[in-house]
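A.,

Following up on our hallway conversation. Structure tokens first:
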């Protein structure tokens, strides 16, 4: 593939480095990207929907790095590469991260990596209402160990929905990740995390729970098997799924719909349900 998008010297201020003073002060890093992609279709249609949205990619990189606290620019480069490859149309990425004046007598130190696309893009809905702050934090640690996490939405609090008796409020968020596992193994990993955190399944599907992890999308798969429907129908029927998904996947084409999530009008089961953004 010879078609490339090149972005030079995207500047971000963040915490980066191993020394004490570096952990206390932000430094400037510069990001150079080369995105390998097929430009034949957008060149023909002249339509942004057919092109790789490099503005969105640059904004996501800034959002990823500004609050980050990496020790090594090698790790930072790897995370930026994962983010770029999560975008439709990007088949390979070269990431160069420069740390100006990191070494006395040198104007710049940089690392450069090249990564091909690999794995299946998935989205997870994560929630719970039994000690949810601790369980969601523990759940995210386990999710990061089992999957390559690309983005995590803000956390939202909402009343328990569909219940017969009063329950604690729920906390919910959405996760964008890559997996090298097939659908069966991906669901098995999710179930393992739930059981590890004390999830008890009962006949009452609205019972309180320590954690609930739903597979919302698995690549472009459309399925109605025993393991559940894909894409998950609650993406468009529940505010606590739709809203965090819009935070991290507004431009993702919903399998079976042929349209981006932001172009689909949700049909909420309870339009009166209100969400509150909270810090986890």
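Then the amino acids I'd put at each of the 280 positions:
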């Amino acid at each position: 593939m010879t078609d490339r998008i090149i972005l030079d010297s995207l500047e971000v201020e963040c915490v980066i480095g191993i020394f004490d003073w570096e952990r206390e002060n932000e430094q400037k890093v510069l990001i150079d990207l080369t995105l390998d992609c097929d430009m034949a279709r957008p060149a023909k249609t002249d339509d942004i929907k057919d092109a790789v949205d490099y503005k969105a990619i640059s904004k996501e990189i800034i959002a990823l790095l500004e609050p980050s606290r990496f020790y090594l620019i090698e790790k930072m480069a790897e995370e930026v590469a994962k983010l770029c490859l999560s975008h439709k149309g990007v088949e390979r990425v070269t990431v160069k991260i420069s740390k100006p004046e990191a070494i006395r007598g040198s104007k710049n130190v940089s690392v450069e990596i090249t990564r091909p696309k690999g794995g299946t893009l998935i989205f997870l809905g994560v929630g719970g209402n039994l000690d949810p702050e601790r369980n969601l934090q523990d759940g995210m640690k386990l999710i990061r160990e089992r999957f390559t996490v690309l983005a995590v939405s803000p956390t939202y609090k909402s009343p328990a929905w569909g219940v017969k008796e009063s329950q604690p409020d729920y906390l919910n968020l959405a996760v964008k990740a890559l997996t090298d596992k097939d659908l069966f193994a991906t669901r098995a990993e999710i179930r393992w995390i739930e059981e590890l955190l004390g999830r008890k399944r009962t006949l009452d599907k609205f019972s309180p729970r320590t954690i609930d992890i739903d597979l919302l999308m698995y690549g472009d798969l459309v399925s109605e098997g025993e393991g559940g429907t894909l894409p998950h129908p609650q993406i468009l029927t529940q505010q606590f799924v739709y809203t965090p998904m819009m935070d991290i996947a507004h431009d993702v084409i919903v399998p079976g719909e042929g349209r981006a999530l932001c172009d689909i009008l949700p049909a909420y089961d309870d339009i009166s349900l209100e969400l509150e953004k909270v810090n986890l």
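The chain has a mean pLDDT of 92. Curious whether your intuition agrees with the design.

B.
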